[in-house]
Amino acid sequence: MKQYYRIFFLFLIFAVSASAVKIWGEKIANPKVSALATVKNTLELNSNEENNENPIVDQTFVSEISSTGDFSETPTSTLKFSSEGICSEVEFTSRALLVEYLNQNIQVAEINSTRRWPIASITKLITAIAATENIDPNLPITLTDKNLKAEGDTGKFKSSETFKAQDLIKAMLLLSSNDAALALSGSYGQDKFLALMRDKIKDIGMKETNIFEPTGISAKNQSTPRDIIKMMRYLYNYHPEILKITRTPKDTAYEIKTRTRQVFTNINIFAGQSNFIGGKTGFIEDSGENLVSLFNVRGQPVVIVVLGSEDRFKETEQILECI
Fold first, then answer.
1. Please, which contacts does 293-301 make with residues 24 or more away whose CB atoms are closer than 8 Å?
2. Which end of the chain has fewer surrounding CB within 10 Å, N or C?
3. What is the pTM of this model?
4. Which position has the higher pLDDT, 89 or 177?
Protein backbone atom coordinates (compact mmCIF):
# COMPACT_ATOMS: atom_id res chain seq x y z
CA MET A 1 0.00 0.00 0.00
CA LYS A 2 2.83 2.38 0.88
CA GLN A 3 4.46 1.62 -2.43
CA TYR A 4 1.19 2.56 -4.21
CA TYR A 5 1.10 5.98 -2.49
CA ARG A 6 4.76 6.56 -3.28
CA ILE A 7 4.13 5.94 -6.99
CA PHE A 8 1.04 8.19 -6.93
CA PHE A 9 2.95 11.12 -5.36
CA LEU A 10 5.84 10.72 -7.81
CA PHE A 11 3.36 10.88 -10.72
CA LEU A 12 1.68 13.98 -9.21
CA ILE A 13 4.99 15.81 -8.82
CA PHE A 14 5.92 14.96 -12.42
CA ALA A 15 2.57 16.30 -13.74
CA VAL A 16 2.85 19.61 -11.82
CA SER A 17 6.43 20.13 -12.98
CA ALA A 18 5.48 19.55 -16.62
CA SER A 19 2.64 22.11 -16.40
CA ALA A 20 4.94 24.70 -14.85
CA VAL A 21 7.52 24.28 -17.62
CA LYS A 22 4.79 24.67 -20.26
CA ILE A 23 3.42 27.88 -18.72
CA TRP A 24 6.91 29.34 -18.33
CA GLY A 25 7.69 28.57 -21.96
CA GLU A 26 4.52 30.32 -23.14
CA LYS A 27 5.42 33.45 -21.18
CA ILE A 28 8.82 33.58 -22.87
CA ALA A 29 7.33 33.03 -26.32
CA ASN A 30 4.44 35.52 -25.78
CA PRO A 31 5.51 38.20 -23.30
CA LYS A 32 2.80 40.59 -22.07
CA VAL A 33 3.05 44.23 -23.19
CA SER A 34 1.65 47.02 -21.05
CA ALA A 35 -1.04 49.34 -22.41
CA LEU A 36 1.33 52.29 -21.96
CA ALA A 37 4.08 50.60 -23.98
CA THR A 38 1.60 49.73 -26.74
CA VAL A 39 0.37 53.31 -27.01
CA LYS A 40 3.93 54.63 -26.86
CA ASN A 41 5.04 52.39 -29.71
CA THR A 42 1.99 53.38 -31.76
CA LEU A 43 2.73 57.07 -31.28
CA GLU A 44 6.40 56.58 -32.17
CA LEU A 45 5.48 54.75 -35.36
CA ASN A 46 2.97 57.43 -36.33
CA SER A 47 5.42 60.23 -35.63
CA ASN A 48 7.78 58.73 -38.21
CA GLU A 49 5.19 58.85 -41.00
CA GLU A 50 5.88 61.15 -43.91
CA ASN A 51 4.16 64.52 -43.93
CA ASN A 52 1.85 63.67 -46.83
CA GLU A 53 -0.46 66.10 -48.61
CA ASN A 54 -3.63 64.51 -47.23
CA PRO A 55 -3.08 63.83 -43.54
CA ILE A 56 -5.79 61.95 -41.70
CA VAL A 57 -7.12 63.59 -38.56
CA ASP A 58 -6.25 61.36 -35.64
CA GLN A 59 -9.60 60.97 -33.88
CA THR A 60 -8.18 58.49 -31.33
CA PHE A 61 -5.21 60.62 -30.34
CA VAL A 62 -4.12 60.00 -26.77
CA SER A 63 -1.28 61.35 -24.69
CA GLU A 64 1.72 59.10 -24.25
CA ILE A 65 1.93 59.76 -20.53
CA SER A 66 -1.22 59.26 -18.46
CA SER A 67 -1.49 59.70 -14.73
CA THR A 68 -4.34 57.22 -14.59
CA GLY A 69 -3.41 54.75 -17.31
CA ASP A 70 -6.86 55.31 -18.82
CA PHE A 71 -6.37 55.94 -22.53
CA SER A 72 -9.82 57.36 -23.17
CA GLU A 73 -10.94 60.06 -25.60
CA THR A 74 -10.25 62.73 -22.99
CA PRO A 75 -7.08 61.60 -21.19
CA THR A 76 -5.43 63.44 -18.35
CA SER A 77 -1.68 63.86 -18.89
CA THR A 78 1.03 64.63 -16.37
CA LEU A 79 3.13 67.58 -17.48
CA LYS A 80 6.60 67.37 -15.98
CA PHE A 81 8.45 70.64 -15.52
CA SER A 82 12.21 70.85 -15.61
CA SER A 83 12.26 72.69 -12.30
CA GLU A 84 11.60 70.97 -8.98
CA GLY A 85 9.05 72.03 -6.40
CA ILE A 86 5.30 72.42 -6.06
CA CYS A 87 4.80 72.58 -9.84
CA SER A 88 7.05 69.69 -10.81
CA GLU A 89 3.99 67.74 -11.97
CA VAL A 90 0.65 69.22 -13.06
CA GLU A 91 -2.22 67.35 -14.72
CA PHE A 92 -3.53 68.53 -18.09
CA THR A 93 -6.13 67.51 -20.66
CA SER A 94 -4.15 68.85 -23.63
CA ARG A 95 -3.30 66.27 -26.29
CA ALA A 96 -0.11 68.11 -27.29
CA LEU A 97 1.75 70.86 -25.47
CA LEU A 98 5.10 72.64 -25.41
CA VAL A 99 6.58 75.38 -23.25
CA GLU A 100 9.85 76.98 -24.34
CA TYR A 101 12.01 80.05 -23.80
CA LEU A 102 11.86 81.53 -27.30
CA ASN A 103 15.32 83.09 -27.56
CA GLN A 104 17.24 80.41 -25.70
CA ASN A 105 15.60 77.25 -27.10
CA ILE A 106 15.21 76.03 -23.52
CA GLN A 107 12.32 73.59 -23.18
CA VAL A 108 10.43 73.90 -19.91
CA ALA A 109 7.80 71.17 -20.36
CA GLU A 110 6.16 69.13 -23.11
CA ILE A 111 3.51 66.56 -23.99
CA ASN A 112 3.72 65.00 -27.46
CA SER A 113 5.45 68.09 -28.82
CA THR A 114 6.14 66.49 -32.21
CA ARG A 115 2.59 65.19 -32.68
CA ARG A 116 0.51 66.73 -35.49
CA TRP A 117 -2.88 68.11 -34.54
CA PRO A 118 -5.59 70.23 -36.26
CA ILE A 119 -4.63 73.82 -35.45
CA ALA A 120 -7.95 75.52 -36.36
CA SER A 121 -7.70 79.34 -36.28
CA ILE A 122 -4.04 79.36 -35.30
CA THR A 123 -3.85 79.05 -39.09
CA LYS A 124 -4.75 82.75 -39.25
CA LEU A 125 -1.31 83.73 -37.97
CA ILE A 126 0.19 82.20 -41.11
CA THR A 127 -2.51 83.93 -43.17
CA ALA A 128 -1.57 87.23 -41.51
CA ILE A 129 2.11 86.73 -42.35
CA ALA A 130 1.32 85.99 -46.01
CA ALA A 131 -1.05 88.95 -46.26
CA THR A 132 1.32 91.37 -44.54
CA GLU A 133 4.22 90.39 -46.78
CA ASN A 134 2.33 90.35 -50.08
CA ILE A 135 -0.71 92.66 -49.95
CA ASP A 136 -0.65 96.45 -49.76
CA PRO A 137 -2.08 97.33 -46.30
CA ASN A 138 -4.13 100.15 -47.86
CA LEU A 139 -5.58 97.99 -50.64
CA PRO A 140 -9.40 98.33 -50.70
CA ILE A 141 -10.97 94.87 -50.49
CA THR A 142 -14.69 94.35 -51.06
CA LEU A 143 -16.44 91.50 -49.27
CA THR A 144 -18.55 89.19 -51.41
CA ASP A 145 -21.38 86.73 -50.77
CA LYS A 146 -18.80 83.95 -51.15
CA ASN A 147 -16.72 85.39 -48.30
CA LEU A 148 -19.76 85.72 -46.05
CA LYS A 149 -20.71 82.06 -46.44
CA ALA A 150 -17.74 81.01 -44.33
CA GLU A 151 -18.47 79.13 -41.12
CA GLY A 152 -17.72 80.68 -37.75
CA ASP A 153 -17.40 84.30 -36.64
CA THR A 154 -18.22 86.85 -39.34
CA GLY A 155 -17.31 90.17 -37.77
CA LYS A 156 -20.81 91.35 -38.74
CA PHE A 157 -19.59 92.12 -42.23
CA LYS A 158 -22.05 92.71 -45.07
CA SER A 159 -21.77 91.93 -48.74
CA SER A 160 -20.32 94.77 -50.84
CA GLU A 161 -18.68 96.45 -47.84
CA THR A 162 -15.11 97.58 -48.53
CA PHE A 163 -12.27 97.72 -46.02
CA LYS A 164 -8.54 98.26 -46.19
CA ALA A 165 -6.48 95.07 -46.11
CA GLN A 166 -4.91 96.11 -42.79
CA ASP A 167 -8.37 96.40 -41.22
CA LEU A 168 -9.35 92.93 -42.40
CA ILE A 169 -6.15 91.60 -40.81
CA LYS A 170 -7.29 93.18 -37.54
CA ALA A 171 -10.72 91.53 -37.81
CA MET A 172 -9.15 88.19 -38.66
CA LEU A 173 -6.83 88.23 -35.64
CA LEU A 174 -9.05 89.92 -33.03
CA LEU A 175 -12.42 88.38 -33.91
CA SER A 176 -10.98 85.29 -35.62
CA SER A 177 -13.14 86.26 -38.58
CA ASN A 178 -13.22 83.62 -41.30
CA ASP A 179 -14.88 86.13 -43.65
CA ALA A 180 -11.91 88.48 -43.31
CA ALA A 181 -9.45 85.64 -43.96
CA LEU A 182 -11.28 84.61 -47.14
CA ALA A 183 -11.55 88.19 -48.34
CA LEU A 184 -7.81 88.74 -47.87
CA SER A 185 -6.83 85.53 -49.65
CA GLY A 186 -9.42 86.11 -52.38
CA SER A 187 -8.03 89.55 -53.16
CA TYR A 188 -4.75 87.91 -54.14
CA GLY A 189 -6.31 84.82 -55.71
CA GLN A 190 -7.22 81.85 -53.49
CA ASP A 191 -4.85 79.35 -55.12
CA LYS A 192 -1.97 81.80 -55.40
CA PHE A 193 -2.42 82.91 -51.79
CA LEU A 194 -2.47 79.31 -50.59
CA ALA A 195 0.80 78.78 -52.46
CA LEU A 196 2.23 81.79 -50.61
CA MET A 197 1.21 80.29 -47.27
CA ARG A 198 2.78 76.94 -48.11
CA ASP A 199 5.99 78.58 -49.31
CA LYS A 200 6.16 80.61 -46.11
CA ILE A 201 5.86 77.63 -43.77
CA LYS A 202 8.67 75.98 -45.73
CA ASP A 203 10.81 79.12 -45.36
CA ILE A 204 10.16 79.14 -41.61
CA GLY A 205 11.09 75.47 -41.38
CA MET A 206 7.67 74.14 -40.40
CA LYS A 207 8.27 70.71 -41.94
CA GLU A 208 5.42 68.97 -40.09
CA THR A 209 2.76 71.54 -41.02
CA ASN A 210 0.05 71.19 -43.69
CA ILE A 211 -2.15 74.09 -44.84
CA PHE A 212 -5.16 73.56 -47.10
CA GLU A 213 -7.08 76.83 -46.64
CA PRO A 214 -6.59 80.21 -44.89
CA THR A 215 -9.21 80.14 -42.10
CA GLY A 216 -8.52 76.99 -40.08
CA ILE A 217 -12.01 75.51 -40.46
CA SER A 218 -10.50 72.48 -42.21
CA ALA A 219 -9.19 69.74 -39.93
CA LYS A 220 -6.55 69.08 -42.60
CA ASN A 221 -4.74 72.22 -41.43
CA GLN A 222 -2.36 70.52 -39.02
CA SER A 223 0.87 71.28 -37.23
CA THR A 224 2.92 70.34 -34.17
CA PRO A 225 3.79 72.36 -31.08
CA ARG A 226 7.42 72.46 -32.23
CA ASP A 227 6.47 73.89 -35.63
CA ILE A 228 4.14 76.44 -34.04
CA ILE A 229 7.01 77.68 -31.88
CA LYS A 230 9.06 78.18 -35.05
CA MET A 231 6.24 80.34 -36.39
CA MET A 232 6.08 82.36 -33.16
CA ARG A 233 9.84 82.92 -33.30
CA TYR A 234 9.46 84.22 -36.87
CA LEU A 235 6.65 86.57 -35.80
CA TYR A 236 8.64 87.80 -32.81
CA ASN A 237 11.72 88.55 -34.92
CA TYR A 238 10.16 89.80 -38.16
CA HIS A 239 6.53 90.82 -37.55
CA PRO A 240 6.10 92.34 -34.09
CA GLU A 241 3.27 94.41 -35.59
CA ILE A 242 1.18 91.25 -36.04
CA LEU A 243 1.78 90.24 -32.43
CA LYS A 244 0.83 93.78 -31.38
CA ILE A 245 -2.57 93.37 -33.06
CA THR A 246 -3.17 90.05 -31.28
CA ARG A 247 -2.53 91.56 -27.84
CA THR A 248 -4.75 94.59 -28.42
CA PRO A 249 -8.03 94.35 -26.42
CA LYS A 250 -10.01 96.15 -29.14
CA ASP A 251 -9.48 98.16 -32.30
CA THR A 252 -11.56 100.08 -34.82
CA ALA A 253 -11.95 100.18 -38.59
CA TYR A 254 -14.02 102.20 -41.04
CA GLU A 255 -15.92 100.96 -44.05
CA ILE A 256 -14.42 102.92 -46.94
CA LYS A 257 -17.59 103.95 -48.82
CA THR A 258 -19.88 104.87 -45.91
CA ARG A 259 -17.27 105.58 -43.21
CA THR A 260 -19.26 103.37 -40.88
CA ARG A 261 -17.25 102.59 -37.77
CA GLN A 262 -16.58 98.97 -36.82
CA VAL A 263 -15.24 97.90 -33.41
CA PHE A 264 -13.27 94.65 -33.20
CA THR A 265 -13.06 93.19 -29.68
CA ASN A 266 -10.37 90.59 -29.02
CA ILE A 267 -11.73 87.16 -28.05
CA ASN A 268 -8.45 86.25 -26.30
CA ILE A 269 -8.78 86.79 -22.55
CA PHE A 270 -5.05 87.49 -22.22
CA ALA A 271 -5.28 90.53 -24.50
CA GLY A 272 -4.37 93.67 -22.59
CA GLN A 273 -2.37 91.92 -19.88
CA SER A 274 0.99 93.62 -19.33
CA ASN A 275 2.98 90.39 -19.71
CA PHE A 276 1.16 89.16 -22.84
CA ILE A 277 3.17 89.67 -26.04
CA GLY A 278 0.69 88.04 -28.40
CA GLY A 279 -0.92 84.83 -29.59
CA LYS A 280 -3.97 83.22 -31.17
CA THR A 281 -6.90 81.02 -30.20
CA GLY A 282 -8.30 78.18 -32.29
CA PHE A 283 -11.26 75.83 -32.11
CA ILE A 284 -13.10 73.36 -34.32
CA GLU A 285 -14.86 70.17 -33.27
CA ASP A 286 -11.98 68.01 -34.52
CA SER A 287 -9.32 69.93 -32.61
CA GLY A 288 -10.79 70.90 -29.28
CA GLU A 289 -9.43 74.08 -27.70
CA ASN A 290 -6.12 75.35 -29.08
CA LEU A 291 -4.07 78.30 -27.93
CA VAL A 292 -0.60 79.67 -28.64
CA SER A 293 0.61 82.42 -26.33
CA LEU A 294 3.79 84.44 -25.97
CA PHE A 295 4.49 85.96 -22.55
CA ASN A 296 7.19 88.08 -20.99
CA VAL A 297 8.48 86.03 -18.05
CA ARG A 298 11.16 87.83 -16.04
CA GLY A 299 12.29 89.72 -19.12
CA GLN A 300 12.37 86.68 -21.39
CA PRO A 301 9.81 85.70 -24.09
CA VAL A 302 8.23 82.34 -23.28
CA VAL A 303 5.90 80.61 -25.73
CA ILE A 304 3.16 78.22 -24.56
CA VAL A 305 1.44 75.98 -27.11
CA VAL A 306 -1.69 74.12 -25.98
CA LEU A 307 -3.50 71.85 -28.47
CA GLY A 308 -6.60 69.73 -27.93
CA SER A 309 -7.35 71.08 -24.46
CA GLU A 310 -10.63 71.09 -22.57
CA ASP A 311 -9.76 74.46 -20.99
CA ARG A 312 -6.96 76.21 -22.90
CA PHE A 313 -6.91 79.43 -20.88
CA LYS A 314 -6.89 77.68 -17.50
CA GLU A 315 -4.10 75.32 -18.52
CA THR A 316 -2.03 78.18 -19.92
CA GLU A 317 -2.48 80.09 -16.67
CA GLN A 318 -1.39 77.01 -14.70
CA ILE A 319 1.77 76.79 -16.77
CA LEU A 320 2.53 80.49 -16.22
CA GLU A 321 2.26 79.97 -12.47
CA CYS A 322 4.76 77.12 -12.66
CA ILE A 323 7.45 78.73 -14.80
1. 294/102, 294/232, 294/236, 294/243, 295/320, 297/323, 300/101, 300/102, 300/103, 300/104, 301/101, 301/102, 301/103, 301/236, 301/277
2. N
3. 0.76
4. 177
